[in-house]
Amino acid sequence: MQSIYNLIMGFIKLLEPTHFGLMALASVxxxxxxxxxxxxxxxxxxxxxxxxxxxxxxxAIPMLIxxxxxxxxxxxxxxxLLNIPGTPSAAATSIDGYLLAQKGRAGEALGYARTASFWGxxxxxxxxxxxxxxxxxxxxxxxxxxxxVLAIMGVMVSGSLSMGQLQIKGWITGFLGLLVSMIxxxxxxxxxxxxxxxxxxxxxxxxxxxxxxxFGFSEVLYVMxxxxxxxxxxxxxxxxxxxxxxxxxxxxxxxxxxxIIGVIAGAIPGVGEDIAAWxxxxxxxxxxxxxxxxxxxxxxAAEVANNAAIGGASIPLLSLGVPGSGAAAVLMGGIMxxxxxxxxxxxxxxxxxxxxxxxxxxxxxxxLLVFGLILSNLFVKVLLIKKDVLMPIVATLCVIxxxxxxxxxxxxxxxxxxxxxxxxxxxxxxxxxxxTLGLILGTMADENLRRGLMLSNNAIYxxxxxxxxxxxxxxxxVMTLWRSHRAKA
Length: 489
What we know:
Strand order of the largest sheet: 1-2
Radius of gyration: 22 Å
Shape: globular
Order of helices and strands: HHHHHHHHEEHHHHHHHHHHHHH
Distance between the termini: 51 Å
Largest sheet: 2 strands, antiparallel
Strand content: under 5%
Number of strands: 2
Low-confidence stretches: none
Mean pLDDT: 81
C-alpha cells in the first residue's frame, strides 16, 4: 500500500503546472530532435543535461526522461517517410514502415508506430516497477568485489554485442573509455594520473561535455561528411495520422513477445534499444513471413521492443548504478549532474525517487502518444530542413551546452576533442556505446578494485571465488563464447 501511495504522490507532483509544462516541452523537443536523421536521443539528453544544470532536479529530471522516451519513438517518423532512421533504434522500423508509405499507408504506419511505442513503453515501466525493488535489496548485499566485476561486465557485454572483428573493436572502445575515466586526481590517494601537469585535467574529464562531444560533435561531423540529401517521396495525401490504440492490441502476441525481448535486451548493460528493435523484429519475422514486405506487424514488433527497452535499461540504472544502454548512460550522467546517485543506496538516500522515476516514465509515454499525434504532420516539414542549415545550429548548441556545465572553455575543448575521436571511431566501425559505458563505469571499477584489495589484504581470489562474482564471470564467458560462435556460424 505504501508503494502505491508513493507512486500516486509522484503522479500528483507531475500534474503541477510547471512540472507538466516542462515535461510537455521536453517531449515536443524529443520528437523534433528524434525525427531528424543524425540527431540521436543520447545526444539530445546530453545537451539538455547541460542546459538544465542550474535547474531544480525536480524539474530537470522529468524533462530528461520525457526527452528520452519521445526521442526513441520519434526516430520512426523519418524511418517511415524517408527510409532514414531518425535514431539507430528505428532502423528495423524503416524496413516495413517505408514500404507501407510507398503503398500510400504512411499515416497508418506512423499511427501504429506511435501506439506501439506507447504500449511497449508502458509494459517496460511496469516491469521496471516490479523488478527494481527486489534487485536493490540484492544489490545492498554487494561488496566492492561484486561492484568491480559488475562494472567490467557492463563494458565486456557491451563490447561483445557485435560479430567478428567488430566485437574486438567494441572491447577496444570500452576499455578506452575506462582509460579516459582514470584521468584526474585519484579519489583514494589524491595522486594525479594522466594529467601531464595540466591543472584543468586535475578534476578529470567532465562527463556531460564528454558525452556532448561523443554524441553531438561526432554526429555533426558524421552527417556533414555524407553528401547525400534526404528527400520526401511520400504522397502528402497519405499522411493523415490516427491513434489506433485499441487496434494495435489485435497484435497482442507480437506486443507481449517484443516487450519481453525489449525489457531483457534493455536490462543487459550495453545492449539497449537498437539491438532490442532488431531482436523483436527478427522474432516477429520468424512467425510471419510476410514481414519485410510492408506489414504493420513488422513496424509494431520493432517499435514495441525499442521502447520497452527503455524500462529495461532503467532497471540496472536505478538498482545497480549500471546503465543498460548508451542513451540510459547519458541519462544517468544527467541525473548524477543534478545530485542524485543511482544505485542500491538510492532506496536509503532518496527513497521517493524510485516512485517518482516510474511516474515520470509513465507520464512521458502518455505525452509521446498525444504530442506524437499532434506534431507528426508538422514534423514532416521539419524533415526537409537541409543539413547545411541544421548542423551549424547543432554545433553551436554543443558548444553552449559543454561550456554551461562548469562555465569552462576547457570543457568545450574536451567536447571537441572527444567529438573528433568519436567521429574517427565511427568511420572505422568502432561503436561508441562501449566507450560511454567505460567512461561512466570507470570510476566504479577503479575504486572498488582497490577497496576489494585493501579488504582482502591484496588477495585477488575474492574477485573470482565469491558466489556473485563467480556467477558474473560465468555470464561474461558464456555471452562472449555465444557471440563468437554466432560470428562463425
